[in-house]
Amino acid sequence: MPADIFVRRFNNGLVFFLSVAALTAGSILITQYDVVAGFTSIAKAFAWGARNFYPDHHAMARLPEILRKLWQTVLMSIAATTVAAIFAAFMAMLGSRTTRFNALSSILVRGLASVFRNIPLVAWAMILMLAFSQSLVTGYLALFFGSFGFLTRAFIETVDEASLDAVEALRATGAGYFAIIFQAVLPSCLPQMVSWLLFMIDTNIRDATLVGLLTGTGIGFTFDLYYKSFHFHEASLVVIMIVITIIVIEMFSNYVRRIIL
Amino acid sequence: MTQVSQFPGRPLLSGRPLLEVSQLVKRYDAGKPALDGISFSIRKGEFVSVIGPSGAGKSTLLRCINRMIEATSGEVSFEGASVGLLDRKNLKRLRSKIGMIFQHYNLVERLTVIENVLHGRLGAKSTLAGAAGHYSREEKRQATEVIAMLGLSDHLYQRCDRLSGGQKQRVGIARALLQDPRMILCDEPIASLDPNASRNIMEQLKRFSQEMDIALIVNLHQVNVACKYSDRILGVNAGRLVFDGRPEELTPEKISQIYGAESRSLTAELGEQYAS
Ligand SMILES: Nc1ncnc2c1ncn2[C@@H]1O[C@H](COP(=O)(O)OP(=O)(O)O)[C@@H](O)[C@H]1O
Ligand SMILES: [Mg+2]
Questions:
Q1: What's the rounded mean pLDDT across residues B90-94?
Q2: Is B104 on the interface with A (CB under 8 A)?
Q3: For chain A, where do the domains classified as CATH 1.10.3720.10 start and end?
Q4: Which of B44, B67, B148, B184 could crosslink B99 through cysteines, CB 3.0-4.6 Å?
């Protein structure tokens, strides 16, 4: 009966709403979080920011040092992403339905990719810090592993979705596996794969800042140093430079995407 | 039964036919087999159409010949060699001598016409040269020549996703011809084309079959087209060969045998063709 459906839907909605309300109230009570103070402090934070968080001329003197660190972080992100992309492309060929050796290779690759992808970046950084302590290598590898998992998955889907009738045609001419990969699969999929690579570079430059806070390297660490030593003007300059860099990189990758797709 | 050549000027093959298929069976799953014991043979340069209702097993039959699909039992022999026994290397060599043309053209759409045509040479290359896509000057010259024969010279460096259906199919034919094949397998080559493009494609196929002495096996679903161009017609129904003869021998009764319930409209179509 149609009436039943509406009643049931209303009841489901009510249960859901009450559950969320109970969870929220419970969390607030347990952590003794003051909701009103929480909101008013946002306004205070802005006021404080306006007074202290802008670059002054002392900060500008530090610009070359900041740019050097930023450059280092950007290069590290690009290196980690592109190397990960090469490994991921190789794995994607083993994982995709069209190009895999057999069903087993596909299952193994997909499993591996989802393990790497589902471990958050910060967790990777923490795990790797045990082995490599706080160093640039730790950051590099953390970004590498995360990107590898994500890109393998994205590349597998790219190859699966490209309609690759041409693979059948090339197989029928007697072409070998590598000829088929390089002459049919990659030419069809490369633009989409490059687009994923650019997306990953964007993401990794943002994340590298965070990872740097943990691993004590790069631009993230520079920010941390200035901030903790109350050099707020310098810290604000770091933030501004990061934002500008991210915008520039994003504009660049959008431009490249427009050309290749 | 088919050893008498229909082309008086052409010498008879001294030994065995080019292709011999015997008792071919393909079973995809536990149910009815897609091919249920098919036997026939094809001579050098012969133009053979395969007709039958959809799901009869035409595509399966074609793909069992070059082992794109592995047959369950039976034997295929090409130029006297048993196809089922070939190892990987020799299977590739066999495939390089058999062209294939598809309903949906199966081109690498982002690549240019000449690049797609040159793919016809990949079967004859070493792993490294194939992966690198390295083609000799002579191969490029041949590709240009074949493209010119098919009237696509103006589109040599055009990307294939810019071409019309008929043009794409001509690229498919050029790719097959560049293999320098003894035989070309065509799976519904005109099913996605308009009547004009269809006629053009069929005429090109006929011409190459005659001029270059290439055997053709063409899956078709238009009986009138099959009659017009073929030396011989094979009729398949539910995985069995129910007709093997010259177009003149294809009577309305035979057609209804091949098509079963579908036959009424098809005989009407054929009648119209004869009337016009
Ligand atoms: N990959 C496959 N797996 C299972 N059954 C298939 C497969 N391909 C074809 N078939 C079945 O085999 C039969 C013959 O198919 P097909 O050779 O494509 O016929 P046709 O080309 O004459 O239309 C059909 O019943 C079809 O459903
Ligand atoms: Mg078919």
A1: 95
A2: yes
A3: 57-260
A4: B184
